[in-house]
């Protein structure tokens, strides 16, 4: 069949005084991969959430295959073969893989009130194999798995209903290179079946590569749509923000800045099942990058250096403080900061205020004479940082959960920059942020480098580590396989050859 699969007319959605979507008109063709892009807070996720049955529209109409469509919940959307993978994690952490894949649909495997676990596992294996996705341990609870693995589970669950409309909200930025390739292949298969997808990503180049058409949102409204074979990244960025944003937000120099004093020395570091004999130094004013495929261990490096993982052997030594780092409390109190990849689950107190989130790493500095935290100091620190980082909010007492991804990430990073740091560990610092916020984060990194802060930059984005790092350590199977310096063969091709 040809023609539109989804039609939206005059869709509106607001949250209190904030308009998230304004008079949205939108048509998705059968067999089309549509990109949806815009700055943080432009209404992209809200639009997909209404299509997926998570939020009801305030007004407007939706049609699937010409039939009226107004889902009351996610199960209603499933019944119309619409599924979504959320930007933030949507798994149940204390349940195993198979139950998460068929969550809410295990009745089909139930006899006499008892779930046939073997049957659920068999069906789960079939889904992973059918869509070419990596198989995690089926009986392990997903809460202990890496964010990337959990995203693969969510994607398998979404595909298990063989959706006619697949909605992907910032999925690729959680994935390393090899799993991104698997997702791209899945989208091609999905398209060949005559099915459609709407993809949100802040990577404009990626969107042009994998989509047929791009629709741009700004301030909750549709600015326009363009065909991917008839546009450029700079044209799309201009539509997003209404001003020129051309490349150039990475470093422009090709110098290697590793001549400062050693700040951190890691020697023969091993973490059972994750890292083996890792060794490296980081210097003052240096940005040291880490990259690798999904099972390489790069994200384990950040946790181990900050003392969040138990070392089976080896040592993490903070040189200026003459300290062997064995716990996050030690790291926190000795001028180290850590921005994890999983922002909502591992970094921010998502249901606490902006004030509390900005203040948390600096509680020691804000203690009064009697050991109490000064509310006046908390207010000043958080107010100053909101102004300094241009965080869009109503007040410092607003909950972090109500903010856009870009503003959450400003808090996640900025609360560490409020401290007198010697070392900053950044794990995928630009995940889920738009091009404007991404450029701003890179500026903050450059400023931190100029002030002598040593930075460990861990990223699934090759362009990011190549654009910002002085040295790059490539990892595979929990080991460092090669060091590449900025003034040598610093290219994607040279790195990919080592990674694979």
What is the strand and helix layout of this fold?
Blueprint: E1 4-15, E2 18-29, E3 33-37, H1 44-51, E4 59-64, E5 67-68, H2 74-79, E6 82-85, H3 97-101, E7 110-111, E8 114-115, H4 117-130, H5 147-159, E9 165-169, H6 177-192, E10 196-200, H7 204-210, E11 213-218, E12 221-227, H8 233-241, E13 262-271, E14 275-283, E15 287-292, H9 298-305, E16 313-318, E17 323-324, H10 328-333, E18 336-339, H11 343-347, H12 354-359, H13 375-389, H14 405-417, E19 423-427, H15 435-450, E20 454-458, H16 462-468, E21 471-476, E22 479-485, H17 492-499
Parallel strand pairs: 3-10, 3-11, 6-9, 9-10, 15-20, 15-21, 18-19, 19-20
Antiparallel strand pairs: 1-2, 1-4, 4-5, 7-8, 11-12, 13-14, 13-16, 16-17, 21-22
Helix pairs in contact: 13-14, 14-15
Give short descriptive properties of this protein.
single chain, alpha/beta, 6-stranded mixed beta sheet, 17 helices, 22 strands
Offer a concise description of the structure:
This protein is of the alpha/beta class.
How does this structure look, described?
This protein is 32% helix and 26% strand. By secondary structure, it is of the alpha/beta class. A 6-stranded mixed sheet has the order 6-9-10-3-11-12, with helices on both faces. It has a 6-stranded mixed sheet with strand order 18-19-20-15-21-22, sandwiched between helices. A 4-stranded antiparallel sheet has the order 2-1-4-5, with helices on one face. Strand 19, helix 15 and strand 20 (454-458) form a beta-alpha-beta unit. Helix 13 packs across helix 14.
